[in-house]
Design a protein that fits this description.
Elements lengths: L8 E4 L5 H12 L3 E6 L3 H13 L4 E5 L5 H15 L4 E4 L14 H29 L2 E5 L3 H4 L5 H21 L4 E7 L9 H10 L8 H13 L7 E4 L7
């Protein structure tokens, strides 16, 4: 039976754990074969591959350091070689480093910007020829920190604001063949998070509940398949940014 992404190939970064994992599994459930990128989560990525294969789809775990342009290009080349095409790039991999205006070091600044902005840009650059060929899509991960600005995560917030502008400039640069959108999750909780996070998040969300990885994966699936949408940032936060 043909499904939404039948015959398509998705490269999902940071797909071994958390939101990236949920996205990879969702796209596979909708028919996509998946290149499962990871950096240090070897065992987790292998498990994701096994779950995707149980869905009847093809998957391969691929390691790369996304602060290295050379490794990024090798990752994209391998994914394209193994699967023959790339239709969807999901830039999910990110770090989340606490730092205030006083405590931010050069190392924290560079790590935040390199992982959260530099990596996604060079992934898009490397994947662009393949995405243009397939009239594909890029879905970037910003977050509400890039909209609200969090003083305790200043470098992170700036990097995610950069991701929002990266999305808009890529959308203009790669149109009309490639659609580029972003998701800005907030008030999302998942297994293993401290229980106080949910209590705190609910205070700020008009919907008075937190979101789930499945909510995020559903939104990514929508953006990846939306044929008349580009340059858009979908805020998925239970209304937190309007409260």
């Amino acid at each position: 039976m043909e499904t939404k992404f039948s015959g398509k190939v998705a490269l999902v970064t940071g797909a071994g754990k958390r939101l990236g994992r949920a996205v990879a599994l969702r796209l596979a459930s909708e028919g996509a074969d998946v290149a499962v990128h990871y950096r240090g989560s070897d065992a987790e990525a292998t498990e994701v591959v096994a779950q995707i294969e149980k869905l009847g789809r093809r998957a391969l775990a691929m390691r790369a350091e996304l602060t290295s342009g050379e490794e990024i290009r090798a990752l994209v080349q391998r994914a394209a070689h193994e699967f023959g095409r790339i239709d969807v790039l999901v830039n999910s991999a990110a770090n989340f480093l606490p730092s205030s205006v006083i405590s931010t070091t050069e190392e924290i600044w560079d790590a935040s910007l390199d992982t959260n902005v530099k990596g996604p840009f060079f992934l898009a650059q490397a994947a662009a020829p393949w995405l243009r060929r397939s009239n594909g899509a890029i879905v970037n991960f910003a977050d509400t920190g890039g909209i609200l600005g969090w003083p305790g995560y200043i470098a992170h917030s700036i990097s995610k604001a950069g991701m929002i502008m990266l999305t808009k400039t890529l959308a203009k640069s790669l149109a009309p063949e490639v659609r580029v959108n972003a998701i800005a999750p907030g008030t999302i909780t998942m297994a293993g998070d401290p229980p106080e996070w949910e209590q705190e998040f609910v205070k700020f969300a008009p919907l008075k509940k937190t979101g789930t990885p499945e909510d995020v994966a559903e939104a990514v699936s929508y953006l990846a398949g939306a044929k008349f949408l580009t340059g858009h940032v979908l805020v998925l936060d239970g209304g937190r940014t309007i409260s």
